[in-house]
Write a structure and sequence with these properties.
β4 and β5 form a beta hairpin. The strands form two sheets. A six-stranded antiparallel β-sheet has the order 6-7-5-4-3-8. Strands 1-2 form a two-stranded antiparallel sheet. Helices cover 27% and strands 24% of the residues.
């Protein structure tokens, strides 16, 4: 995805590892293609961003509002035990925020999900992701 107004282009690795879900004016939402975890990636639609401190104060407020909206809906839809929210960027430098619903009985609990086990390919959007998208689209988000 390219947005020339903000010089935004989605990193190829993020594009390959995810399904597009929906977008706000500020953020693109993606679903990780690993069926083991309800896992959303929020990407600010601005070019040249690597860390949260690279956002302008106005854009940072918009990203945090988007993150909260997504996290609330993911938590409601999955009934998870805990939400993990992180911006690492060690492998993909483009600023992106992971929002992951965690369960005490999931494969990686209580550790992080990165590098644990073998990802289970996801061929279509699961019901939880469709429901999150449907709820967001009714509140100023659009289909990706």
């Amino acid at each position: 995805m390219t947005d020339t107004f903000y010089n935004f282009e989605l990193d190829a690795r993020l594009a390959a590892d995810t399904f597009p879900l929906c977008q706000s004016d500020m953020s693109l939402l993606l679903v990780m293609r690993d069926a083991r975890f309800p896992w959303i990636v929020l990407v600010p639609k601005r070019g040249g961003l690597f860390d949260l401190v690279d956002l302008t104060p106005t854009d940072e407020s918009a990203v945090m509002a988007d993150q909260r909206a997504v996290a609330e809906r993911l938590k409601r839809e999955t009934g998870c035990d805990k939400l993990n929210i992180a911006s690492l960027g060690n492998k993909v430098r483009q600023l992106h925020i992971h929002i992951i619903a965690r369960f005490e009985n999931d494969e990686a609990w209580p550790g992080p999900v990165w590098g644990v086990g073998t990802p289970e390919p996801m061929m279509t959007l699961p019901a939880w992701a469709q429901s999150v998208r449907n709820r967001l689209v009714t509140n100023d988000w659009s289909a990706a």
